[in-house]
Fold this protein.
Amino acid sequence: MLPRRIYQFFLIYLLGILVLLSLKYGLQLSDYVIPGPKTLWQTALEVFPRYALDVWNTLQVALIGQVMSIVLALAIGIPGRSTTWFGNFIKAAAYNVQAYPIVAIAPIIFILLGDGFLSRLLIAAMICYFPILLTVLGVMSEPVADVEHFYRCTGRMRWQLEVKIRAFENLHKLTTVIAGSATLAMAGTIVAEFIAANAGIGYSIRIALYQSDLARILVALLLIGICLSVYQGLLEHTGSLVKKAWTGSA
């Protein structure tokens, strides 16, 4: 699974590079506009160690932000599964907060928390949590009629057991969306770094943009893609292990 993900990313990345090079030589553009293969190679050798550390820095923030988003989605989704006034209020509040674009909220976050770790973490979690929340709400709002009916008839049904039954029945959906949300967590962190942060690969991309250095941006995109492919592959593998363990204990 993991080697295939990396292979697929390299194939997509190389196709993108070939498109850029076709435009470069077809329109006779200079290296200043679109760098040639030699410039790309030299730039990669020059910035690789520093950019690798920047990507690792970004991944750490994204990972913590994703964990926060999962906890937040569960904290909202489990009470919000009910059709009571409180459950509907929680869902409405979550939807309304998500309606604001992150670029409108980000300046407030940076003013209050500065341009350091906490701001990046909060923005990553905010971007990442909503798709997880929607999945949690969908899963937790869908009864497993036969199983739940048995426990209700025997008087053993509790809300904790109800949550466990519905999560177990839809474990594949939950693990899939958590693995997929890694992309949003990484993207959210990079967006935060690009807007106003002082560290991470998004910050390095912003510096390269100000210098009109497309070669450095392309190297950064390569490292981001490799890192994200490995991270998602590990999440999917972990999800399959959890599913097997939970199924075996049932």
